[in-house]
Amino acid sequence: xxxxxxxxxxxxxxxxxxxxxxxxxxxxxxxxxxxxxxxxxxxxxxxxxxxxxxxxxxxxxxxxxxxxxxxxxxxxxxxxxxxxxxxxxxxxxxxxxxxxxxxxxxxxxxxxxxxxxxxxxxxxxxxxxxxxxxxxxxxxxxxxxxxxxxxxxxxxxxxxxxxxxxxxxxxxxxxxxxxxxxxxxxxxxxxxxxxxxxxxxxxxxxxxxxxxxxxxxxxxxxxxxxxxxxxxxxxxxxxxxxxxxxxxxxxxxxxxxxxxxxxxxxxxxxxxxxxxxxxxxxxxxxxxxxxxxxxxxxxxxxxxxxxxxxxxxxxxxxxxxxxxxxxxx
Length: 329
Known about the structure:
By secondary structure, the protein is mostly beta strands. The chain has two domains: 1-34; 38-329, no CATH class. It has helices at 6-32, 159-163, and strands at 36-42, 45-49, 52-57, 61-68, 70-77, 96-103, 107-111, 135-137, 144-146, 235-236, 264-265, 321-326. The strands form four sheets. The chain has a five-stranded antiparallel sheet with strand order 2-3-12-5-6, with no helix packed on it. Strands 1-4-7 form a three-stranded antiparallel sheet, with no helix packed on it. The protein has a two-stranded antiparallel ribbon with strand order 8-9.
């Protein structure tokens, strides 16, 4: 029979007491250091809707997070591309990315809101300046980037450069092709088709002399009096953000849409010459006489193609936008 001294028995009792106290203390500590509710500072506007706190960036600015961990939902739109000059293609809508992240603070960073693509004059040597800029929601988990929309092809933009644009730049939606002479292919959309696409390609032109519509984040256009000139459909923001008292975005327009109000983003611009192309969700429409309409600010809409009047330029793209939402304290 094993021998156990009184000293060992006493030590065992003390160890047992220590373990019980240790567990009790750890329980108390875990209650004392309970996770803190997530809180966000930043954005040009903030409001509460449907039990969620929503922050909106319409221009670059701080993004400060404290507390957590907790879920944060986001909707990020890149800037739209500009339309091409003189019977030009419509600009592509900015890329759109949406989802959720589990974040905890503290951390502080800066949100980037994409600058609109700038319309270029006829025979411009720098057509890529017409591409929309990216919008970025930085964070320690996974930086979210929405690509800018491609520019609409103008009369002096080389076909090869335009077709191979995605080899040098990530793009949301592609711009439409130039509308004079032989049919010109629409511009590309990065990762299209596929689960990581942020938009759709621009339209290929068809005679007589009609610029193709820019692609949209929702789908290429497929209705209207001249579908090939129509800008592509935009995409609806998630229901979390659809506060009627704080409307952002533009109308979509497709007959199958069941959502009312201006809650659509990143539509493509209409193709230039003549002026019967339609545009939705912030995309610009063509006008006769010039100037061609720009994409609506903070929708990521593409600018309209030039109307073919004396080499007129297309419209500028629309600036991007960034939304986040979370459950407040």
